[in-house]
Specification:
This protein is an alpha+beta fold. It is about 15% helix and about 35% strand.
């Protein structure tokens, strides 16, 4: 981490600066069901946040980072969960 940590943080800051919130993404908020669990997608601070049925608190949030064409990658501030998984709304 000492070697690459600062470069990763700098790259991440650049990515977030380039991404503007699109109000149209509000349409993706809602309850999504699968065979494994229910997930609520909610809007918080101009960001789509995933809250699972087993969520222990908002500090464990997983959010969706836009990558274009109604596709997002899952991100988590604490690095846990399905980070990097692509989510596509159809």
């Amino acid at each position: 981490m000492k070697t690459v940590g600062r470069a990763v943080i700098k790259a991440k800051e650049k990515d977030t600066e380039d991404t503007d919130w699109d109000p149209a993404w509000q349409r993706f908020a809602g309850l999504y069901r699968s065979a494994w669990s229910d997930v609520h997608v909610v809007m918080m601070n101009e960001r789509l946040v995933l809250l699972g049925g087993n969520a222990r608190g908002i500090d464990l949030e997983v959010y969706l980072e836009p990558i274009g064409n109604d596709r997002f990658t899952m991100q988590a501030p604490n690095g846990s969960g399905p980070v990097g998984k692509v989510v596509r709304f159809v």
